[in-house]
Amino acid sequence: MGVGPRYDGGAGGTGGDGRDFGGGRGSGAGDDAEALLRARLRLADEQIETPPGLWGRIRESGPAPAASVVALPRRRPYTVALVVAAAVAAVALGVWWLVRPGPVSVQPAGPHRTVKITVYNSEQACRTGRSLECALRLARDPRAPYAARGNAAGRVWHGDGLAARCVVTDGRMVRDEAGITSTRWYLVTSGLGVQGWLPGVRTRNTREVPECAEG
To answer: Which parts of the chain span the membrane according to its record (predicted)?
Structure first.
């Protein structure tokens, strides 16, 4: 006669109807959790996007190439000497240029030294042409009457260049057609070699002329 199902006291036994009475956890749940975690990490990694222009900025901010150092050729002793000699010569030339003497004009000394003056006619109508009516007199004596008959040494015209040797400041006063007066008389020589005295009112001289010696 049957006595029913036998229980031998072992853990995890099964009943006669095949049900599991054990209290241990199976390995299938752990595998599912690990797979789920991997899937979520992969999805998060795929959703990360690279900011635009990131790689270009990284390349631009990279370290600059080191500057190349070029070794200069060593100067030989005689080359240095030539450079120094050229520098000294340039300095000497510059000093000479600063202190060089001005242009020297050789002029005759004594009574042969003259100053060029130009004849001036106050009458505008007589400033062209060389008519007798427009001729100006050179006097023989600066202290005699200018229009005296015997006080004529030669003729000059407006614009003539004369060589003045000296001047007297106490000659006879002469008045020109414009009313200008002067007691200055220049001892002159014309281009034709005629020597005489020109009244100061017949020139507009701006150059210094030495005074004539007395006697």
So the answer is: 78-99
